[in-house]
Amino acid sequence: MAMFQWTDVMSVGVASMDHQHKQLFQLINQLYEAMQAGKGDQLIQDILMKLSGYTRTHFAAEEEILRKIRYPGLNSQIALHKAFVDKVGQMIRDVKGGKKIATVSLATFLKDWLVTHIQKEDRQYGLYIQHQNLAGCP
Question: What is the pTM of this model?
């Protein structure tokens, strides 16, 4: 059973970003499912590496869209993205260094961060796009 299910309430109104957000949820759900199967500790590094790579790709794509539309909250988004990437990077270094990370806490952190970020921060650029009538946005 998945930890997080996508609903239309999560949509930011930009199809490409909604698709990428769904991919991020799938990665978090992979970690949760590994935990449920008792394999969280074995798979945590691999899943964190995938998450790190995909978040970098997603954040770069999102920031490019925000640059193109001259979104006034771009610098804030960049700072939040960097903080997340840095935190995940530290977790990867910790796991590689042999430090145990509670997979339940990790999965909860990732889910909470992503849901909060999308609903609070990303939704704002979705509204900006609607208000600016930028319907052709990718």
Answer: 0.87
